[in-house]
Amino acid sequence: MSDVLLPLPILIAFVTAILAFFFRKGTEARWISVAGSACMLVAAGMLLSRVLTDGIQAAQMGTWAAPFGITLVADTLSAVMVVITGITALAVSIYAVGDVTEDMEHVGYHTLFQVLIAGVTGAFLTGDLFNLYVWFEVMLIASFGLLVMGGRRVQMDAGIKYVTLNLISTILFLSGIGLLYGVTGTLNMADLHYKVQDADPGLVTVIATMFLVGFGIKSAVFPLFFWLPAAYHTPAFSVSAVFAGLLTKVGVYAMMRMFTLVFTQDIGWTHGLMLWVAVATMITGVLGAAAQTDFRRILSFHIVSQIGYMVLGLALYTPLAVTGAVFYLVHHIIVKANLFLVAGVTNRIAGSTEIDHIGGLYKGAPLLAFLFLIPAFSLAGFPPLSGFWAKYVLVKASLDLELWLVAAAALAVGLMTIYSMTKIWGRAFWKPHPGAIVPSLSTLPAGDRFAMLAPIAGLATLTVIIGLFPEPFVGIATRAAEDLLDPTAYLTAVLGAPEAVQ
Amino acid sequence: MEFLIALMVGALVAAAVYLMLARNVLRFLFGLILISNAANLLIFASGGLTPEAPPLIAYGADAPPPGVANALPQALVLTAIVIGFGLFAFALVLVYRAYQTMGTLDSDDMRLAEPEEKP
Amino acid sequence: MTSLIVRAATRLLVGLLLMFSIWMLLRGHNEPGGGFIGGLIGATGFILYAVAHGSKAARVALRIDPQTIAMAGLGLALLAGLAGFIPGDGLFAGQWLFIGATETDKGTPLSTILVFDIGVYLVVLGAVLTMVFALEEEV
């Protein structure tokens, strides 16, 4: 049964992409996309419930046995990430009904979007290193197309920076894979866990650093983040929402997977490096945001800053810290995608995302203001929203290790986040509109209004639910952390009992 | 033989880095193409070089004779080349379009997405 | 680019290349060849045609939009993968049908692997032509 369930989310996304392509000239494509995302979310939910009840699931593609064929594996982290991907895909595909222009639909927006979702899901589920590379590329090709879709001049500029830096990252990743294969002779991640232990430790550390840099560019950590704030504010709003929610997080996920399962022999170097990278990422991201006045650019710099928290959790490498990182990952995807969706509505009703050029949103659209405040406060870490628990766990974990400076940095960055959010609040929502108009939600057509506000409200509700009832979510995150830090169950699911392998 | 390939990979990477340090985006793109070929060669060499023994199974046999070349790195390189081909075709069109819309290939002048701060 | 020699040679070569591409596709299971290389050779044929007569004429000769070909190929490959589920083997497990098989002779073997390869052929053909036509019309 798990043979069917594991590839199902990827298959659904691909089938939706193909159907959406053939119906791209009409309006059917958008509904196909919504329906496909909903089906994918259901499949992901089934997968998660199976993983939670029966433990880690593995399926061998083409019935080739484990170290030789491609394996799909779903442990708790993978399953959770696939569910979050489904939620984001559903929210954004509903939002796209109101946001995406017909020109973009005709050149295949929905197809590329679903291919992107397939790539992200595949990256979360694969248990094979080269297959991970292939899913990264699937994701990358789709994201290239989505980023420049519409063809505005500013998108060309952003596209060049995004494309070139991401190509460097994949080439580093690919070289790392080649060297690792040369050293160990396998590409299966579970098999690598065993084989790496017999390899020359110095060589493995070099390869680990290559992976760290490759994934570091992907997940936009200091000092490799420059492409992100240069690109994420240019495409259509639904596109930048899904980019902000999912793309960098795939890099973080890959880092978490590789640096808990494979590269654990020189923790002092790899994870120690990560710790300082994480702190620098948090601080530079939030300082960069302070200097910006564009809604989406502020949010883009905050993505960088928040990535720091997730990497911090991985770098501390204690059960509590990894729990915090997983929790942060989930919280961040929901909140950040939601904030970009809010920015889209702001642009539609107030005419710009430049916060000096707009205003009066609180007066004209109090509902939108309320829906902005929830994810904004959550991002800054206000209790009782999801961001508070995520930050709390991470700060607690760094205090447990007596890393006072790190904990202080994490708290200070939280304060600075509040500054940016109040800046948006004060200038975009509170002050009067410089054009002396009162932007109002009623200027949107009824259909668009519902399609754009429903996903925002849904994601905001999810944030509140996670904030008010964190126990089950922390429970799942704890299980994910246990799976990551003690890979025995993972190895058994993929390769069989450990004694038989050795 | 591996030593020669290693030297070649090193030379390619050096040339690629030199090209990528240029401000001209087209030169940067050529650098990327070179470095991706270096990565492909690296994978190919890391699988071990076995001359004149293609991994073919004779008609009627179940397995290839011993001592044939490792087919997996070749498959990986093929996949990487194909993906690279698609990505670079896209990047080339993108650079061309960017040149048309912005009238420059100098990355220092491409400040549309990140306008310079007003003092 | 529209010299008489190129056009005359193209008339001969395009048909030859297309036939060669299909031969490559079919021989691919046990010998060097397969859907990928076949698709590339097939694409070469149409690219040659586009060089000689312009990409507009090549699009007319192709009859179907190359993007559609690529998507149809992707669908076909996925279907071939899904066929592995029917006997309960799992995704992408090859299924075989031996037509006219007897005790000693295995007859004409047909497999979902061939269907998958045809899908790959169409994807490569469509994707390469999409890119080349776009480049030719763009630059």
- State the helix count of chain B: 3
Helix content of chain C: 55-70%
Estimate the strand proportion of chain C. 5-15%
Residue-averaged pLDDT of chain C, rounded? 85
Mean pLDDT of chain B: 85
Distance between the termini of chain C: 15 Å
What's the number of extended β-strand segments of chain C?
2
Poorly predicted spans of chain C: none
Largest sheet of chain C: 2 strands, antiparallel
Strand content of chain B: under 5%
Order of helices and strands of chain B: HHH
How many domain regions of chain C? 1
**Overall spatial form of chain C:** elongated
Structural class assignment of chain C: mainly alpha
- Terminal-residue CA separation of chain B: 58 Å
List the secondary-structure elements of chain C in sequence, H or E: HHHHEEH
Which overall shape of chain B is indicated by the principal axes computed on the Cα atoms?
elongated
How many beta-strand elements of chain B? Answer: 0
Quick overview of this protein structure:
The complex is a heterotrimer of chains A (502), B (119) and C (139). Chain B is mostly helical and 119 residues long. Helices cover 61% and strands 0% of the residues of chain B.
Key words describing this protein structure:
heterotrimer, B: about 120 residues, mainly alpha, Helix Hairpins, 3 helices, C: about 140 residues, two-stranded antiparallel ribbon, 5 helices, 2 strands
Describe this structure in words.
The complex is a heterotrimer of chains A (about 500), B (about 120) and C (about 140). Chain A is built from 23 helices and 2 strands. With about 500 residues, chain A is an all-alpha fold. Chain A has a two-stranded antiparallel sheet with strand order 1-2. The mean pLDDT of chain A is about 90. Chain B has a single domain, classed as Helix Hairpins, CATH 1.10.287. Helices cover about 60% and strands about 0% of the residues of chain B. The longest helix of chain B is centred in the last third of the chain and has 32 residues. By secondary structure, chain C is mainly α. Chain C has one domain. Chain C has 5 helices and 2 strands, in the order ααααββα. In chain C, strands 1-2 form a two-stranded antiparallel sheet. In chain C, helix 1 packs antiparallel against helix 2. The relative contact order of chain C is 0.17. Chains in contact: A-B, A-C, B-C. Chain C: Belongs to the CPA3 antiporters (TC 2.A.63) subunit B family. Chain C: Its main location: membrane. Chain C: It comes from Jannaschia donghaensis. Chain C: It is found in: Cell membrane.
